[in-house]
Amino acid sequence: MSASDTSKYRPETRLVQGGILRSQFGETSEALFLTQGYVYDNSAQAEARFKGEDHGYQYSRFANPTVTMFEQRIAEFEGAEAARATATGMAAVTLAMMGQVKAGDHVVASKAIFGSCLYVVEDYLPRYGVTSTIVDGFDLDAWRKAMRPNTKACFLESPTNPTLEVLDIAEIAKIAHSVGAKLVVDNVFSTPLWQSPLQLGADCVVYSTTKHIDGQGRCLGGVILGSEKFINENIHNYIRQTGPSMSPFNAWVMLKGLETLAVRVRAQTDTAGKVAEALSKHPKVKKLIYPGRPDHPQAAIVKKQMRGGSTMVAFEVANGKKGAFAFQDALKIVRISNNLGDAKSLITHPATTTHYRLKPEQRADLGISDGLVRLSCGLEHVDDLIDDVTNALKAV
Ligand SMILES: *Cc1c(COP(=O)(O)O)cnc(C)c1O
């Protein structure tokens, strides 16, 4: 079996044709190799494979053909030399950071990141002697001031969760590189369709493939992408020896998810833009943040680094928590959930769910007011969604 080379094609074609490894049966759809291990023709082949002289598979914790197909397809799409799939998005984030550091090193991260990512940086890394500094991601001077000679890695998310603000990836990459640190970008909210952090100067991109890449709410997964050198030096052995590998079944679901990624994300982004437009004029919406609108707080950076808006809309409903709850409870199509990137539209009240552990001052600092809701637009008809949202606002 050998993978097809699709690098000369356009993105949509690569999402369908990239990384295919066809077996002797010539199947159309990618095969699901549910196998733990592999057999060898003879002892010498087993020996050669363990020595790395023969490039076949050994054990599915290290690699599996279905997982390889997923890794190659997403790597080609992202424009990365290499990718490693993981069991969850958090496994990808944790490994991308842990794989680079040792006791005595220092990391810097922006404060508006997914809750569990903040946990890894603020609580877990310091347990192993890796100090961390959390900065306001918009403040380039704060990034500059946070850099130390032992700073090994920087971490950010853009657009941020849940307020959808946008950080300048190219500028932050330059600051990281000035002290020899690597920049890791969590690109979940923009998806690989709308933003390519590696092209902007980042060294590593991570995804929770649980979100738009599956896109239909089925499997958990993650992936780490970067140069061959970055992955080989920091990630490859870490996964191989510690075992947070993606299961072949989940890789197969993600592989099929990639085939429809561009179609889905385009449609969901289109819908989100129209929902945002309808909300922007609504008297019960106090504040609206949507990347792609000229009134977005970092509209110039959005234009510079993103090719499209977002499938997500953040807005503040009048009357605080009471208003937000009344609004969410009156929705008929959009369901209350902390998840996102699904074909089904989902809504979250961050102050009482994903960010409830934070102190009120911390939430205020991140712009998470009691009236803020985060809407993940799905694939339903846009007019039904606009009707649902505007009807529910009557309850506020
Ligand atoms: C969901 C998410 C994660 C974590 O991914 P899991 O697959 O749930 O482990 C990390 N970062 C962002 C931005 C996310 O949305």
Describe this structure in words.
With 396 residues, the protein is of the alpha/beta class. The chain folds into 2 domains: 11-257, Type I PLP-dependent aspartate aminotransferase-like (Major domain) (Aspartate Aminotransferase, domain 2), CATH 3.40.640; 264-395, Aspartate Aminotransferase, domain 1, CATH 3.90.1150.10. The protein has 14 helices and 12 strands. The protein has helices spanning 11-17, 43-51, 65-78, 89-98, 115-127, 140-146, 169-178, 191-194, 228-242, 248-280, 299-305, 320-330, 360-365, 382-393, and strands at residues 82-86, 106-110, 131-135, 151-157, 182-186, 204-208, 222-226, 285-289, 312-317, 335-336, 346-348, 372-376. A 7-stranded mixed β-sheet has the order 1-7-6-5-4-2-3, with helices on both faces. Helix 8 (191-194) links the parallel strand 5 and strand 6 (204-208). The termini are far apart. The mean pLDDT is 96. Bound molecules: pyridoxal-5'-phosphate. Residues 88-90, 93, 114, 117, 157, 161, 186, 188-189, 208, 210-211, 220, 222 line the site of pyridoxal-5'-phosphate.
- How many alpha or pi helices? 14
How much is the average pLDDT? 96
pLDDT below 50 for ≥5 consecutive residues: which ranges? none
**What is the C-alpha radius of gyration, as a whole number of Å?**
22 Å
What is the global morphology? globular
**Terminal-residue CA separation:** 59 Å
**Order of strands side by side in the largest beta sheet?**
1-7-6-5-4-2-3
Oligomer status? single chain
